[in-house]
Amino acid sequence: MADKKARIAVLVSGGGTNLQAILDAERSEIIKSGKVVVVISSRPDAYALERAKAAGVPAHTVSKKEAASQEAFEEGITVLLDKYKAELIVLAGFMSILSESFTKKYERRIINVHPSLSPSFCGEGFYGLRVHKAALERGVKVTGATVHFVNEIPDGGEIIMQKAVRIRKGDTPEKLQKRVMREAEWKILPAAVEAVSEEIVSKR
Ligand code: GAR
Predict the structure, then answer these.
(1) Does ligand 1 have an atom closer than 6 angstroms to the CB of 16?
(2) Is 165 in the pocket of ligand 1 (CB under 6 A)?
(3) What is the Å distance from ligand 1's center to 188 Cα?
(4) Atom number, ligand 1, closest to the C-alpha of residue 13
(5) 15 lines ligand 1 (CB under 6 A)
(6) Deepest in the core among 113, 122, 173, 179, taking most CB within 10 A?
(7) For residue 190, which of 123, 111, 121 has the smallest C-alpha distance?
């Protein structure tokens, strides 16, 4: 039954392909223990907002740029999380670091997808294409994606799932980003969302 499902808020900042993977997984019942009830973007122009609307999910913007402070930004998000009674917060291409007071409030209730094998190419400054550029510059032969719980250490929370992806000759950051998304992120993020949702529901 729908009200037995964990209520999920997805936080985004950009294209929203990971959000799409979650919405598709919900439709195909790969995610059966959770339901996306709201999408919150830190940018008004994020294409992810269109994806939410197309799926009939309420979509809101809390602009990071226009917020007077980090506190005000997080307060704007909290108001929406409360309004939609969110139980699980999924960071899917959300490009803001959340403060300790925010992450403490939602302990083991926030998960993030990161486009590398943690602890490589993680932490402040490693986001989006920069991660793949750093991996190629270092010459690693294997990279991948990680889904982890979010705590006060950027990309430092407990790992939930990882998937490796091979580097190929001729890879550019753009090519690698697409392959890591397709082969790893879009698979492990929905799987982790289901696993954590199931845990939330089982504890009720
Ligand atoms: C994804 O590759 C995601 O892992 C990464 O940004 C991209 C967002 O794409 N996130 C980070 O780098 C966070 N540290 P999307 O908007 O299409 O899902």
Answers:
(1) yes
(2) no
(3) 13
(4) 16
(5) yes
(6) 113
(7) 111
Q: Token pair of 121, please?
A: 């190419």
Place of tokens 């690698």: 176
Is 114 a catalytic site residue?
A: yes
Residue-range domain boundaries for the chain:
2-113+147-162+184-202
pLDDT tens per residue across span 109-168: 999 999 999 999 999 999 999 999 999 999 999 999 999 999 999 999 999 999 999 999
Closest C-alpha residue for ligand 1 atom 15: 16
Residue that the structure tokens 């809101």 belong to: 60
Superfamily of domain 2-113+147-162+184-202, CATH level 4: Formyl transferase, N-terminal domain (3.40.50.170)
**Cα dihedral sign, 47-182-24-114:** negative
Name residues whose C-beta falls within 8 Å of residue 53's C-beta, 6 or more positions apart in sequence: 59
> What are the C-alpha distances in Å from 52 to residues 2, 20, 182?
18, 8, 20
DSSP string, 58-85: -EEE--TTT-SSHHHHHHHHHHHHHHTT
**CA of residue 157 to ligand 1 center, whole Å:** 17
Does the reported pTM lie above 0.90?
yes
pLDDT at residue 3, as a whole number:
65
Q: pLDDT tens, 151-180?
A: 999 999 999 999 999 999 999 999 999 999
- The pLDDT score that the predictor gives to residue 2 is 46
